[in-house]
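tool=predict chain=A
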Amino acid sequence: MNQMRKIYGSKPPQPTRAYKDRLFRMIFKDKAEFLTLYNALNGTSYADPEALKITTLEYAVQQAVDTCIENGILTKFLKEHKAEEIEQLRSE
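tool=predict ok
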């Protein structure tokens, strides 16, 4: 611990969200492993990993932006700035 304080000072660096996301995806890309995590967190005992439907935050944000465009909500703005808005929503 003292060695770490010598290198980083009193505030060690924090992991970035993108790195944590990649690590999580790497560990739980296998549906059976993900189901084990889900069961542990929710106190359930589901057994069929193929019944899982995994929706990522990135996909959900993409769908929300597309739905806004389809319904005429901020259409011009979102069409012009779609990529930036998706990244902004994802990072918050």
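Helices lie at 2-8, 17-27, 31-42, 57-70, 75-91. Residues 57-91 form one domain.
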